[in-house]
């Protein structure tokens, strides 16, 4: 297994373990021992599922780029999993009504799905602008190999703050508000613990949505790569 894969797996394990431990402690503080144990079960299952999928895909990715892309997506999900552990305790707090929990969950899902779609859109645009013209520099059909890392670097992909219906001119203001609310939430965690979770939890949802664009990048990459394999009739491996 490549050193980079081992480093990513180690980082994922560290982040997820820290996230589950932090989420367990937060749930215990907000909702009691029984809720904390329930969270710990859910968090542990998520940790095992994400690390197992990364381990399998890391091995498979040495022989096929499509699996390497899926491995990268799994690594991004590990980052998302870490951040989720810091807001999921809200679902175990009995004083927060079911309607509020459902509304927050629905808002999160819509925002995250929108950003995955945005990531796919950005990747496809970059592919059409750059990759189609420079593909020959990184890909050898005869050898069935591609320098995927080099190709991605040439695309210069970057995420943007994206909230459906909010003009791009508000990006700077949103970024400032996200940081301000997170700092306020952290400073009030002992005085007003539930308000604190909301104060940094909602900005965390926005932060996760931005990371979800990277999932979109990966989905689009997988579609482009598998389409290229089908077109050329080869299984493309890393160069």
Features:
mainly alpha, 7 helices, 239 residues, 3 strands, 77% helix, 3-stranded mixed beta sheet, globular
Work out the strand percent.
under 5%
| Cα distance spanning the termini | 15 Å
Main sheet attributes: strand count, strand direction, barrel closure: 3 strands, mixed
> Which structural class do you get from the secondary structure elements?
mainly alpha
Quaternary structure annotation: single chain
H/E topology pattern: HHHHEEHHHE
Rounded mean pLDDT score: 88
Number of domains: 1
Radius of gyration: 20 Å
Separate helix tally: 7
Number of strands: 3
Portion in helices: over 70%
Shape: globular
Low-confidence stretches: none
Strand order of the largest sheet: 1-2-3
Any chance you could write out the topology, listing elements then pairs?
Elements (H helix, E strand, L loop, with lengths): L2 H29 L1 H28 L4 H20 L13 H41 E2 L4 E2 L1 H8 L15 H17 L5 H40 L4 E2 L1
Parallel strand pairs: 2-3
Antiparallel strand pairs: 1-2
Helix pairs in contact: 1-2, 1-3, 2-3, 3-7, 4-5, 4-7, 6-7
């Amino acid at each position: 297994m490549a050193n980079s894969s081992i480093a990513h797996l180690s980082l994922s394990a560290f982040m997820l373990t820290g996230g589950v431990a932090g989420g367990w402690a937060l749930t215990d503080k907000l909702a009691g021992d029984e809720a904390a144990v329930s969270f710990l079960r859910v968090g542990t299952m998520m940790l095992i599922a994400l690390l197992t999928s990364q381990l399998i895909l890391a091995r498979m990715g040495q022989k096929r780029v499509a699996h390497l892309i899926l491995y990268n997506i799994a690594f991004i999900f590990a980052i998302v999993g870490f951040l989720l552990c810091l807001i999921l305790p809200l679902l175990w707090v009995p004083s927060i009504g079911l309607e509020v929990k459902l509304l927050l969950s629905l808002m999160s899902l819509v925002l995250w799905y929108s950003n995955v779609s945005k990531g796919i859109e950005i990747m496809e645009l970059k592919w059409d602008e750059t990759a189609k013209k420079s593909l020959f520099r990184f890909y050898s059909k005869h050898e069935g190999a591609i320098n995927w890392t080099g190709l991605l670097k040439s695309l210069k992909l970057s995420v943007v703050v994206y909230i459906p219906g909010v003009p791009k001119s508000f990006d700077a203001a949103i970024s400032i508000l996200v940081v301000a609310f997170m700092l306020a939430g952290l400073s009030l965690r002992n005085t007003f613990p539930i308000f604190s979770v909301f104060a940094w939890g909602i900005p965390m949802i926005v932060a996760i949505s931005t990371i979800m664009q990277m999932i979109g990048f990966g989905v689009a990459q997988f579609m482009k790569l598998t389409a290229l394999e089908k077109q050329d009739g080869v299984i493309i491996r890393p160069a």
